[in-house]
TrEMBL record, chain A:
The lineage of its organism: Bacteria, Pseudomonadati, Bacteroidota, Cytophagia, Cytophagales. This is Acetolactate synthase. Residues 212-347 form the Thiamine pyrophosphate enzyme central domain. Residues 23-137 form the Thiamine pyrophosphate enzyme N-terminal TPP-binding domain. CDD domains: TPP_AHAS (cd02015), TPP_PYR_POX_like (cd07035). It comes from Rhodocytophaga aerolata. InterPro entries: Acetolactate_synth_lsu, AHAS_TPP, DHS-like_NAD/FAD-binding_dom, THDP-binding, Thiamin_PyroP_enz_cen_dom, Thiamin_PyroP_enz_TPP-bd_dom, TPP-bd_CS, TPP_enz.
From TrEMBL, chain B:
The keyword Secreted does not apply. Pathway: Amino-acid biosynthesis; L-valine biosynthesis; L-valine from pyruvate: step 1/4; Amino-acid biosynthesis; L-isoleucine biosynthesis; L-isoleucine from 2-oxobutanoate: step 1/4. Catalyzes the conversion of 2 pyruvate molecules into acetolactate in the first common step of the biosynthetic pathway of the branched-amino acids such as leucine, isoleucine, and valine. This is Acetolactate synthase small subunit. The lineage of its organism: Bacteria, Pseudomonadati, Bacteroidota, Cytophagia, Cytophagales. Residues 15-89 form the ACT domain. Belongs to the acetolactate synthase small subunit family. It comes from Rhodocytophaga aerolata.
């Protein structure tokens, strides 16, 4: 396979060789040029010529047949998030295409590179309400970084090249290319040239030296500086630079949900996780620091709470590649509109060696309060059913914080973000911005395919699992060795928690009568077990981790447990509740 | 009034001028940015600019400066948008065009030339005269084209149409120079450092 792609590449550098191929084949050749080897997809009428061409490329392009197109998008996201490569999805027109929308919206808000290829009815049928014709361009427009419909086969190579260039550069995102059926059949003279430039698109703004000087001055003068590390660190690969900046200037580092694993959790400067269910110190200290250094994050409302009372006392440095995020929610003192890695590299030599031990200790004092009020009880309950925190803690210890952890949305997601101790980078995959239940199972599939060498553990609620559980079929068919942990509380737990705290305990439509999850897994020929006793927890997790191949472990947890601390929605981060 | 973040809370007219590649679907992509934020477009005009293949959108909105600035940044994010510029009304020269269809009859019986005088006084002109009606044309600001409409009402206006605003900024920058700078800028910011 490698030989073949190399062949095409070296041929091209000598002269632009052309060959007569169909649009369908041209697409596959284009994917190979872009280094694609895996596709997540589902066939149908309007994309059949492409699937037919794929039959002849099975040795070079691995196609993972999912069980629902939404699963293909989340799998592509999981794959992209752990490899840094662009995830690729195929789907047919109409319902195939509309089934992609949730995953595309998720990839857009969580800046994940993805290229979706949809088949479309033949060009003359556009706009006639033909069978399975949907305006997928119109539907996907607000949730894609770019989209395009190909109705002229000679445009196809250029459009594919542009799609990959746009998806992976700058702030990454999803691109959708809709290809009409006649274009897939049409023969033409194919040549491929990678896209290197679009004049209306400047993905990597140059670091401005004045901004760097101004930022360095603020950091060198600060008494209580505080770094908020976001997803941008992982996307730009700035982990080392972040570490160097934090260590040199002695600045404590907290992480956003999507920034988790960018900074080692066991580092003395790491102070914890930010936001609604984040750690106590990171939240309250936001309103006590004198300088906030936000890197590759976008001040989401789940991080800031009430903006009117958020960090008003502090000066703010915002390092961010997307100019529309700067001054959107929080007014900056110094904005550095650039890639995080480039900015931190430029910043490092301007910083004075410094220490802020007293300030860092203030976080530790907060940790003690949080430990006593929350953590200790969550990790070492005296009695009662298993708690989410202790399960996550055991998984964290048994995997040495080195697994790729994929979470769904809800209480289990917050428990995992709080209690898993990420010690290797790019090991947190979750749906942050969109909060898509059903994300974890297919995303774990994609993550395991992208990093077969790593232990991949999906932690999912009983509710979210039932949104995409059909992907167990994919996991079985392709023997994808992801480990699946269901934290079963027989409730839509997070919603129940809000009902308890803010709606007088009126549990409207949140209790679940659940199926036998172990039987379901076994129905898909996947090994499975169920555990509800504390003394059996470790052994059952060990069995799961040791198993060669996919495995599902249902853990029965306390039905009405709440995740704390909590900043009530719209409240100030300073008013974080510990119980 | 001032908001704590330093922005004025005053709602006023802003002109957003957008230069784009000529791509189908882009009008939709631009307008949904406004719709999603519940911002009503007062008027919109699209035409090819002085540079071949480059379109110019002139969009008028009535919002606060803070919202306007954030909106313009969202418009710039679209891949095919070459540039988006925010102007207050006073920073532009602008016009609109209005057409009025009125029945011919009052003209024929207009012994005092009252209608003709009205047209002259409003710096309007007669575009066509048909057997049944005449069409009057006027360029000007909204208040001016509206004033003529009110005055013509007495004679019966059977159709009235007003174009979106078109405007030219008072800045000296040439579109071509801007595009050239943009080419250099994008060429310099293609790769990660
Ligand atoms: C697709 C989708 N529908 C609804 C929601 C709203 N929601 C957020 S958390 C939650 C409950 C999740 O329950 P479960 O999967 O059992 O996880 P738990 O909170 O119990 O850990 C719901 C319904 C959502 N985030 N996504």
């Amino acid at each position: 396979m490698e030989a073949l792609t190399k062949q095409t590449l070296s041929d091209q550098s000598e002269k632009q060789v052309s060959q007569i191929v169909s649009g369908a084949e041209a697409l596959l050749l284009g994917l190979l040029e872009e280094g694609v080897d895996t596709i997540f997809g589902y066939p149908g009428g309007a994309i059949m010529p492409i699937y037919d061409a794929l039959y002849g490329y099975q040795d070079r392009l691995r196609h993972i047949l999912v069980r629902h197109e939404q699963g293909a998008t989340h799998a592509a996201q999981g794959y992209a998030r752990v490899t840094g490569k662009t995830g690729v999805v195929f789907a047919t027109s109409g319902p195939g295409a509309t089934n992609l929308i949730t995953g595309i919206a998720d990839a857009q808000i969580d800046s994940t590179p993805m290229v979706c290829i949809t088949g479309q009815v033949a060009t003359p049928l556009l706009g006639t309400d033909a069978f399975q014709e949907t305006d997928v361009l119109g539907i996907s427009m607000p949730v894609t970084k770019w989209n395009y419909q190909v109705t002229d086969v000679t445009e196809l190579p250029e459009v594919i090249a542009k799609a990959f260039f746009i998806a992976r550069t700058g702030r990454p995102g999803p691109v959708l290319i809709d290809i009409t059926k006649d274009v897939q059949f049409a023969k033409f003279e194919y040549t491929y040239k990678k896209c290197e430039k679009i004049r209306s698109y400047a993905p990597y703004p140059k670091v401005n030296n004045d901004d760097i000087e101004a930022a360095a001055k603020l950091i060198n003068a600060a008494k209580k500086p505080y770094i908020l590390a976001g997803h941008g660190i992982l996307i730009s690969g700035a982990q080392k630079e972040l570490l160097a900046v934090a260590e040199k200037a002695g600045v404590p580092v907290a992480s956003t949900l999507l920034g988790l694993s960018a900074f080692p959790c066991n580092h003395p400067l790491y102070v914890g996780y930010l936001g609604m269910h984040g750690n106590y110190g990171p939240n309250v200290k936001t309103n006590e620091c004198d300088l906030l250094i936000a890197i590759g994050m976008r001040f989401d409302d789940r991080v800031t709470g009430d903006l009117k009372t958020y960090a008003r006392q502090a000066k703010v440095i915002h390092i961010e590649i997307d100019p529309s995020e700067i001054d959107k929610n929080v007014k900056t003192t110094v904005a550095i509109n650039a890639d995080a890695k480039a900015a931190l590299k430029a910043l490092l030599p301007k910083l004075k060696e410094n220490k802020h031990d007293k300030w860092v200790n203030e976080f530790r004092e907060c940790d003690k309060i949080e430990y006593e009020k929350v953590v200790n009880k969550a990790l070492h309950p005296a009695e009662g059913g298993l708690l989410m925190a202790e399960v996550v803690n055991v998984i964290s210890e048994m995997t040495k914080g080195e697994a790729i952890v994929v979470t769904d949305v809800g209480q289990h997601q917050m428990a995992t973000s709080r209690y898993y101790k990420y010690n290797t980078t790019d090991s947190n995959v979750t749906s942050g911005g969109l909060g898509t239940m059903g994300f974890a199972l297919p995303a774990a599939m994609g993550a395991k395919i992208g990093r077969p060498d790593k232990q991949v553990v999906a932690i999912i609620g009983d509710g979210g699992f039932q949104m995409t559980l059909q992907e167990l079929g994919t996991i079985f068919q392709f023997n994808i060795g992801a480990k699946i942990v269901i934290l079963n509380n027989s409730f839509l737990g997070m919603v129940r928690q809000w009902q308890q705290l803010f709606f007088d305990k009126r549990y409207s439509a949140t209790e679940m009568t659940n199926p036998d999850f172990v039987a379901i897994a076994r129905g898909f020929y996947i090994n499975a077990a169920k555990v509800s006793l504390r003394e059996e927890l470790k052994q059952s997790i060990q069995t799961m981790l040791d198993h060669n191949g996919p495995y599902l472990l249902e853990v029965v947890v306390e039905k009405e447990e709440n995740v704390f601390p909590m900043v009530p929605a719209g409240d100030s981060v300073g008013n974080i509740r510990l119980e | 009034m001032e908001h704590p973040n330093g922005y004025s809370t005053e709602v006023k007219l802003f002109v957003i001028s957008v230069l784009t590649e000529n791509k189908s679907g882009l009008l939709n992509a631009i307008t949904i940015i406004f719709t999603r934020r519940k911002i009503n477009i007062e008027s919109i005009n699209v035409s090819e600019s002085e540079v071949a293949g480059v379109s110019r959108y002139t969009i008028v909105v009535k919002i606060t400066r803070e919202r306007a600035e954030k909106l313009v940044k969202q418009v710039r994010k679209l891949i095919e948008v070459l540039g988006a510029f925010l102007y207050e009304e006073e920073e532009t020269h602008f016009q609109e065009l209005a057409l009025y269809k009125v029945p011919l009859e009052p003209f024929l019986n207009d012994s005092n030339n009252r209608i003709e005088k009205l047209i002259r006084d409003n710096f309007a002109r007669i575009l066509v005269i048909e057997r049944e009606y005449i069409i009057i044309e006027k360029t000007g600001r909204k208040s001016e084209t509206q004033k003529l409409f009110e005055e013509l009402k007495a004679y019966g206006v059977s159709e009235f149409v007003r174009s979106g605003r078109i405007s030219i900024s008072k800045s000296k920058r040439r579109t071509e120079t801007f595009l050239k700078e943009l080419e250099e800028l994008s060429a310099n910011s293609l790769v990660k450092e």
